[in-house]
Amino acid sequence: MTIARGRTRTDTDTSASLPSDVRAHNLAFALRTLHAAGPMSRADLSRAIGLTRVTISDLVTELIARGHAVELGISSAVRPGKPAILVDINRHGLQIVGLDLTENDVLRAAVMDLDGRILAQADRAIADEKGAELAQIVIELTHHGVTLATAPLLGIGVGTPGIVNAEGTVLTAPNLGWENLPLGDMIEDATGLPTQVHNDADAAVHGEYTFGGGTDDMILVRVGRGVGSSLMVGGVRARGVHSAAGEIGHLTVGTDGGLLCSCGRYGCLETWLAVPALERALAKVASAPDPSAAAEAVFHKAGERLAVALAPIVAAIDLAEIVLCGPPHLINETFLESVRETLAQRVLPLLPPPTAVRLADEPQNTVLRGTVVMVLSSQLGVD
User: What is the pTM of this model?
Assistant: First the structure.
């Protein structure tokens, strides 16, 4: 499992564990427990993770020295003996800069705490910039985000359209004009901060899973400049042998031709569902005799095409839910209901429907919150 660019560990390593490996594991275990459960005493932490109080005390001392954990004062719980001092992960004393590159007309950078709360944000409007020009804009926006931080930065996370490998290189992102762009290295060189670059939908599914109440078996579909998805199966994100699991945007949906896609083919899902495609379709029907009904038809057709693409995935993996995120004025109730209806027509009929269809907890911030999870995982071992 890759936990940091250039620094990896694998679950298949059969060599004997060194004491330093065990200690690193225990430190990460303590941080994971605190992040998930909240403040607790050293004694409670010892019981929660099954290590001796002496070991826990030693680990907490190191975490406090590193600035990764803090003491919060005496517990209010009434217990016999000496009052316990609560410790917690340093939720507000460390910050993360996240970038969301998925929107059609704006790039977003935000400074967040370790709970995924946005503390400051900077946006950069874009038009038709692509390739090297767009990459430079991303670097400039990252610098701006770093200047907004008010506490030490743990790292930088980036959610971008396209296929991204474990080293943070964007292998291909047709809508951005990027091919084999070493975006992670570029940002690290520019800022000196550890950087995680992931596909936007992959970041979003982690954000929803960690902060939005997502289930162990779900698919999250991100609608922006393009269309992407990410699968969580048994609580583990499916990556795929080519780092391309969830790349549904360029599935050909239907046999009725369709519009030309940026990839050079016709009828891809993105031509029905991406934000530019939906906005063009809505503009065309704005002058219709009944523009409201015509707009409803656009949303209904887009939801139908998405459900056609998702039905085989839902049937094959038996997913608990489909989570959608994108602009609220486009991913509306008509769209959601169309997905539900079409899906019900194409999978095994059960009551109640086995797969829920819903909006993400914070649709506009899911990618940004996901970048927090990516940095926490790589830098602190907190998943």
Answer: 0.82
